[in-house]
Amino acid sequence: MKTKRLILALTTWTVVIVMSLHSCQTDSGYDNVIQENNLTEADLFVASEAYKNLEKEIKKNLRRRKTQLINFLKKKKTVSTA
Predict the structure, then answer these.
(1) DSSP E strands: which ranges in 1-82?
(2) Is the pTM here over 0.70, yes or no?
(3) Is residue 1 predicted with pLDDT exceeding 60?
(4) Residue 82 pLDDT > 80, yes or no?
(5) How far apart are CA 43 and CA 48, in angstroms?
(6) 3-state DSSP helix/strand/coil % of the chain, to nearest 5
């Protein structure tokens, strides 16, 4: 009984290992080829310097708005307490 379980366990592990090795070998190069061929204009824009500059401007504007809102709330709080 123990030898049958041992043989079954070894066979199962062997099949799992072989399947995982086979899937790693067949999938590794194929995904890279697909990703390289499917670049769009949007992908190129995101990788560009213009996109980075746009991100900086958006962050700067968000900081300005947050600062203005905080100042407005502080001013409103001081006016209502006075």
Answers:
(1) none
(2) no
(3) yes
(4) no
(5) 9
(6) 90, 0, 10
Question: Letter for the amino acid at 21?
Answer: L
Q: Residue 37 contacts by C-beta under 8 Å, 6 or more apart in sequence? A: none
DSSP string, 10-28: HHHHHHHHHHHHHHHHHHH
Rg of the chain taking only CA atoms, in angstroms: 30
> For the range 74-81, what are the long-range contacts, defined as Cβ-Cβ under 8 Å and sequence gap of 24 or more?
none
Length in residues, the chain? 82
> CA 74 to CA 68: how far, in whole Å?
10
Distance CA 46, CA 39 (A): 11
pLDDT tens per residue across span 13-60: 787 776 776 666 555 555 555 556 677 888 888 888 888 999 999 999
Contact 51, 45 (CB under 8 A): yes
